[in-house]
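hi support,

uploading two proteins for the ticket. first:
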Amino acid sequence: MPDRPPTGQTLIQSVQRAVHLLRALNHRGGSASAKQLARDADLPLPTAYHLLRTLCHEGLVRKDRHGYALADPGGLAVPQPSAPDSLPTQEWTDQLSLELNAAVYFVVYREGEIRVTAASRNPACPPVTEWADFRLTGHAHAAGQALLSQLSDEERADHLARHPATPLTRHTVAGRTAVERRLASRQRGAPHLEYEEYTLGTVCAAVPITVGSSAATLAISLPSARAAELQPLTRSLQARAESVLLDRTFSVTPWAPRPARPPRTREGAPGVPGAPSSTTERPKDGRQAS
């Protein structure tokens, strides 16, 4: 996808920012300038331009005389933040497993525990055998590390107090201090890679994702004999996941003729649902800062 925001960002951050721009367009009656949208979404103007070009390329937004408008075919439904397990995760993991030739997992952090919500069903690339409970060994596998990196200091401390970071193999980074130091050294949003820390003979990688207020991650595992493929496959996972998440985040309703635009009100605001007027404060976006 051209004009993709820099890959150093948190994976889902660009998707969240795109949603913020679409909500801002919605609030302004479906049409606004880039400067207005950047201000409404609290984004730097260059970032707004970058994302708007991508949204235009994907057919979700089009250029118009005011700047940008929601795409015409079908009423674009801008969703509210949703929990990760409401998304079609099994479909993601199965498709990504075939594309990457690796076992793929979607894992979330819910109610203080690590939970695998989907693992790919690809006989050619079977998932790792859970010989030690994934919930208790998050410090040792890439998916757990990606989730722990997204928690607050208090949440992470609570998790490690309940589930001590004990060694599983000779490669495991063990001990609470060592684990916290390791997580603190990672750039926020960067992928996590581990080599035989959870189980000998397997290497893993995970890409942190934030959906709404929930921590989640997409992860892959490979036999150690394919360890040289782990980094390039992780880059592919990151790029593919961003595209899939963007596709799945938006829903398009069946096409219907647009109603005629009502005349302007006496106060001068267009009679379009969601448009601000001089007498009514524009709804504020309840999004999280990214």
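and the second one:
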Amino acid sequence: MSQVKVTYEVTYKPDSTESKFNKEEMSLKHFNGRSYFYNETKFKLDSLYDKVTAEFLKTGITPNVSLKYELNFGIYKDLTKQEIYEINNISSRNFIFKINLNKQIWNIGRDTKKIHNYNCRKATIKFGGRLWEAWFTDEIPINDGPYKFFGLPGLILEIYDTEKNYNFLAIGISKQNDNFKLSSQFIRTSQDNFIKLKNRLINDPALFVRESIMKRNNVKMKGTDGNNLESSELYDRITKEFNYFIKTHNNPIEKNTTWIR
């Protein structure tokens, strides 16, 4: 089975100081040596947010749309070329860039168990400041897995860090009959430039909104209550919400990075 779609249930703890866990579903589509790992909910909602943003810029009314996902990234692998690309979302803009990734060195053990009637073996790896335990099956001889993990002699059906902050568990496996294409709307950049942009946004969370409003000098803004909203109030609100998110999402998959949305 060289073409496969795997749906993973991702259980994760966004705040290391709390005991609460969140759950989301992400999918891995693998087709002849290339794969795409993504949050299906995110990409279904992207078109909605595009419409809402356009309406905001047209009317100045702040949209009241709830965020239904938090794992707002995608991973594209071309295993035939040993290349990995990250798709990251910032303020409803999707950026894609090639990442620098060292060779993944796995330690394959003797422990075994079954997942969905597939015989799996255990392997461990140090990645992103965490120790991970993976269960892979050579009954599906694809050296791929969720997130940035790959390189085992079989598909990874479960992987979790030993501190139990993140768990990726396959809950559905089916044949992938269709090839896939990445969206042409992704903004292509380099990893270095993306990090610079991310740092600018951390220092100035209202950056993108301010730039958009400055291009439309005549726009008059209103809050969800219908009252007029000064630009300074909007910027302050965005900054507070942004900083609160960072404070309550201090436990990213890879340590020593900042989780923003």
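thanks. also noticed: The first helix runs from residue 40 to 59.
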